[in-house]
Design a protein that fits this description.
The protein has helices at 42-68, 76-114, 122-180, 190-194, 203-208, 286-300; strands at residues 2-3, 10-11, 216-225, 237-242, 254-263, 276-279, 282-285. The protein has 302 residues and is of the alpha+beta class. It has two domains: 42-156, no CATH class; 182-296, no CATH class. Strand 6 and strand 7 (282-285) form a beta hairpin. Helix 1 (42-68) packs antiparallel against helix 2 (76-114) and helix 1 runs parallel beside helix 3 (122-180). The longest helix has 59 residues, at 122-180. The radius of gyration is 40 Å and the shape is elongated.
């Protein structure tokens, strides 16, 4: 079967006699293969170019990070930090490109070594392959050494998100105390009372979604002047505890109200070890709260 180079039709026969479709005929037999052929550099150039491109992209990303964060004049610490930033930015692009470049480069190098008469540039191919592997290892190393720090920052973010409702409610309690002189004393009405506060950004309403009224406790301490003296002086004062339903204070009486609010943790289940406790403006975990109570108890021991 012969393919006519003129019209592309296939036929059986001799092209010297002419193509049945278009009549074209060959003017002579095919040219003989040349006795000497120059070796090809194309495959070596592909591998070298891959290494050059990966190195250039990584270097450009490092320089961009240095410019972005004002790392000039560069020092070793700033260069390492810029390399870490560049590595995290390039991680999703580098992985597939590195797989293709390294796998394809290894195959091409084997082909060049197996056919030294047809292909040249083995040294250039090896240099490009080494550059690609070096950039891949550098990016993987810079990402690896920052993983513990990033995990720590992520844990901080989780804790901040978990404590945010507590800080918002502590602020709401402070605003309520400034308006009414005391915090809500009835656990059944604490949510409705806090909803009456100004909330232009909706943060208080969002925080109240996590509040369980059963986790709220309030206590009141009354400070009143001694009946033995008409003047309110520190030496003649007596401080006594009172219940939540204490009536109006006597003459010269001052009411100090404290509260404790328990919020569910990330699992949204109240009364377990991951709860957040807000006590008089302090936002604490359960373990921190237990340490706080123990410290206060030891401080009261004479």
């Amino acid at each position: 079967m012969i393919n006519c180079p003129s019209c592309g039709s296939n036929f059986e026969g001799d092209l010297c006699l002419g193509c049945p479709s278009c009549g074209a005929r060959s003017v002579g037999p095919p040219l003989a293969r040349p006795e000497h052929e120059l070796p090809s550099y194309g495959r070596a150039v592909i591998v070298a170019a891959g290494g050059l491109v990966m190195s250039g992209v990584f270097l450009a990303s490092v320089i961009a990070a240095l410019i972005e964060f004002g790392g000039f004049p560069p020092r070793l610490g700033t260069i390492v930090n810029a390399g870490e930033v560049a590595s995290w930015r390039l991680k999703w692009m580098t992985l597939p490109v590195a797989i293709i470049v390294l796998w394809g480069g290894a195959r091409i190098i084997r082909t060049i070594k197996a056919n030294p008469g047809r292909f040249m540039g083995l040294r250039a191919a090896r240099l490009g392959f080494t550059a690609s592997a070096l950039v891949t290892v550098m990016i993987a190393t810079l990402i690896g050494i920052t993983i513990p720090v990033r995990l720590e920052r992520r844990q901080w973010a989780i804790e901040a998100a978990s404590n945010a409702p507590g800080y918002t409610l502590a602020r709401a309690m402070l605003e309520y105390r400034e308006l009414h002189g005391m915090v809500p004393t009835d656990s059944d009405k604490v949510i409705s009372e806090l909803r009456t506060l100004p909330d232009p950004d909706g943060s208080i309403a969002a925080a109240l979604r996590y509040v369980d009224a059963n986790g709220y406790q309030a206590s009141t301490v009354l400070a009143a002047a001694s009946t033995k003296s008409k003047s309110l002086v520190p030496r003649g004062s007596a401080i006594r505890n009172a219940s939540d339903s204490a009536g109006p204070t006597t003459d010269h009486g001052v009411s100090f109200t404290s509260y404790e609010l328990r919020l569910p943790g990330p699992d949204k289940i109240l009364n377990n070890d991951d709860d957040t406790i807000v006590r008089d403006g302090l936002v604490m975990t359960v373990s921190e709260y237990q340490s706080f109570v123990s410290a206060r108890a030891r401080a009261r021991i004479p």
